[in-house]
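Suppose a classmate hands you a notebook page containing two proteins, each written out with its sequence and a corresponding row of structure tokens. How would you begin to make sense of it? This section walks through that situation. The first entry is reproduced here exactly as it would appear on such a page.
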Amino acid sequence: MAAIIKANMEHCQLLSEIGKISFIESHGHSAPPEDINTYVKEKYKEELFRAEITDAKNIYHIIYYHEQPAGYSKIIFNAAHPDIAKRNVTKMERLYLLKEFYSLKLGYDLLKFNIELSRTNKQSGMWLYVWKENPRAVSFYKKNGFVITGSHDFKLTETHSNPNHQMFLRY
């Protein structure tokens, strides 16, 4: 059975651990190992999560499966994007699921939860970036109504960027 809870300060270490593992599982082959390791060390520090959790604009949720943490999401309401004409849109900044839970459709559950939360908060859509070379993720978002609306270079390190699609779901 799956359960989704709002993350708080007590979850920062867990968010850090899930972030590191799931990023390496899904993007570990997208760049040289030293670039991946540098990115993970810089972006998934527990203290960064502590700072983000204290900022009310960052909304984190953790999904559990039979009381085991399986993944997490981060959304930001009213995160305008210059290429999206709609107002009051949500940015899906992260939707991470540990690989061992892929077959259970928990990513779908977490996405739908966040879409409903976004709608409840009077948002008119949701946008995100997804790595172009992750066909599983691109297909997942397309299947759930997102359309490609642009592109974005995701800067991994000073020497490496990954090409991303910008995707949008209009409510």
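The notebook's second entry, a different protein, reads as follows.
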Amino acid sequence: MTWRDRLRPASFKGVPFFVKGSTLKVGRRTQVWEFPNRDTPFVQDRGRKARGFDIEAILIGDDYDVARDALIDAFEAEGSGYLVHPNYGDRLVKTVGEASVSETDEEGGMARITVSFVDAGNDFQPIRKRDRKDDARNAATDAASSAADTFEEGFSVDDLGSDIRAEATSLLGDATAALALSRSRINQAVGVVDDVGTQIDRFEDQVESLINSPNQLYQSLAGLVDQVLDTATRVAAGSVTTEDILTSPFASGPLSRTFRADTLMVAYRDLFVFGDDVPTVDGSTPSRSKQQENQTAIIQGFKAATLIETARSVTNVTLESEDQATGIRDEMVAGVDQLSLLADDELFADLQNLRVTLTRYLTDAAEDLPALNDFIPKETEPALVIANRQYGDATRDLEIIERNGLRRPGFVSGGVAIKVLDQ
């Protein structure tokens, strides 16, 4: 094996070259102060020194001169760039000083460029991060429109027997029952009294006439889903005391604003499983085939409305932690993937756009949120003492109580792990 065979690939700003090795420079930034009439100096430590890299880039081959010029342009261009190195991986760096280009007659077809890099770090000027809420909301609006079109194309009871209409009416009744149950549990959890129950009852009374107009039927059903899920994002009236909090997002007692995201996702899980236990209709005859299409349209339409309105509501709730944001992101992505399997081309495209925009929003949100860690009290003590120790703020005891479902907040058991934020 020759020395050329031992060369390893690297690149800077996407321009490839080869390296044999490199020199890493590390250390501390220090200032030595020597005072008159004092033998011992004072060494001031000013922090870690920026890590530097001395590299000899090797360009070799018939077109080495083209690669050489491209790499020179990359070195001379303003701004930082990514250095991909076999020893140090991907690093955002800037060139330091001048690069030295060496070519000789003895080494024809090859150039060596010696250059120094330093870790680029962060810009001192603040960078405005794009708020991706509007992107996610707009994507949800587009997906809702496509879901309505898909339902209208797949659902119909025109010129069909009474048994087909009865089956559709019965399944829609199951959907309203699921909404009523979820609405009741959410109201109990967030401490809100609303009139959505009356609207659900009105919808159920009007189903017989609404099924003759698929678009109006779907808009009414999706509107109810929206109102039920929207309840989870509302602010509870009155103050919340520690005595009100029990063991789960749907325990008896209102939740604070911070935990509406958990409540919303529990409701989403309850509604998104609608129809999973309904036996699939055998479509062996024309009438049965239509019944099967209607069944699919209702179940998939209900799931689509649930997922889309949850995605829209997620942008309105207060997210508590990095773990919560990434957990919601992964759960919503899984829901989109499930719905996409049976979606037509238009709905599929809009669902994928919703997937992308919601992922970006929640990923950005997660970067700005604290992480959730385990904390083990050494002895049994009140939640407010733990809050004061962890955050320097005893009034944050409520979030510890809610997050861990503490039945006796004045006596948090010692030796048992609970979840707390790292800031």
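A careful reader of the second entry would note: Residues 235-254 have pLDDT under 50 and may be disordered.
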